[in-house]
Amino acid sequence: MKSLSSVLLTLLIAPLFISCQNQQQSNSNTDSDFIKYGNEEVSSVHQENGGREIANNSLKYFESIDSKNGMVMSITPFPSSWQKQNSGDYAFTGPNGIKIFNEKGGSFMFSNDPQTNQMYQQSGIQVQFPKSIDQVINEGFMEYANKINRKLLRKYPIPQIAAWDKQFDDKLYKTMPSQKTFTVYGLEWQDPDGKMFLTVLHHFVSYDQMGGYWGIIYSVLETPEEIFAATKKQFLNGLINQQTNPQWVQVKNQQDQQTAMASNNAHQNRMNDIQAFGANNTARHNQRMAAMDQDMEKLESQSGSWRPKSRAVFGLRK
């Protein structure tokens, strides 16, 4: 499974992650309280719903590992009966048909300068000006839902997770000042066969001096109708109470700073090369123009009619 952090890192250029408080229960863990071990049981709950036992006898922390350096990026408390999947379409599966799909998303660059947008497109980068989260829902999710007769039952903001996004982003290394907005919505759906779905949709926009970027990330929970309410609470509480590893954040910031410095140095070298290339081209251009003037002078000695034509054409270079 790709954790939310790894997807956000891919999408946002500068990393993005989350840390906040549960609306109903305060999360007392701070960076200094980060639990350095995974799969630790943290509580015990027993629930039943509609005759089905909700297998939540305990919670445990599931680790997300940075594949590049092997460090723990974050830990997430989910029911111990859930199983983490390392391949396929699902991030987690659980008893009674519980499924959590892998996160998906996309991002776009934009600029008020048409040449910059053209440069992005030539580099294979998607260019699009920001759309609101409601536009994304209506133009993307609703169109697909209508095709498969999936009904939207509820739509609501989840400010705890939006705050989680922003608070983590504030900890991260930035190459330039920017203004960012984070919005998270929950979308509850039902299929004709009764299956229930919860989409947790993250929406972000970043503006800076050069333009900006925006995008979405979303994860989906699927359950039978009779256990949806209880499982939804487990899923959302797990997302809200994720903890990030401060040591990983520190290492990631150092790496990003080094990468930015190397990129800036490479950019400066390219600019120097361009300037040198331009200076050489100007010198060669002037040499060619001087040679042409000499040729015109030779022609003028043979015919007085050449000089006026010469000035009319070559005078444009001044």
Kindly describe this structure.
- By secondary structure, the chain is α+β, with helices and mostly antiparallel strands.
- Helix content is 39%, strand content 27%.
- The chain contains 7 helices and 13 strands.
- The protein has helices at residues 4-12, 114-122, 133-147, 159-170, 228-240, 246-302, 306-314, and strands at 47-49, 52-54, 59-65, 72-79, 83-84, 90-94, 98-101, 104-110, 151-157, 179-190, 196-208, 211-223, 243-244.
- The strands form 3 sheets. Strands 5, 6, 7, 8, 9, 10, 11 and 12 form an 8-stranded antiparallel beta sheet that branches. The protein has a 3-stranded antiparallel beta sheet with strand order 3-4-13.
- Helix 6 packs antiparallel against helix 7.
- The chain is globular, with a radius of gyration of 29 Å.
Descriptors:
7 helices, eight-stranded antiparallel sheet, disordered C terminus, globular, 318 residues
- Listing every helix as H and every strand as E from the N terminus to the C terminus, the arrangement reads HEEEEEEEEHHEHEEEHEHH
Q: For the report, how would you describe the main beta sheet?
A: 8 strands, antiparallel
* Overall mean confidence score, pLDDT: 76
Helix content: 25-40%
Which secondary-structure class do the elements indicate? Answer: alpha+beta
The overall strand count is: 13
* Rg, alpha carbons: 29 Å
Low-confidence stretches: 5-33, 35-56, 291-318
The number of distinct helices, counting runs of at least 4 residues, comes to: 7
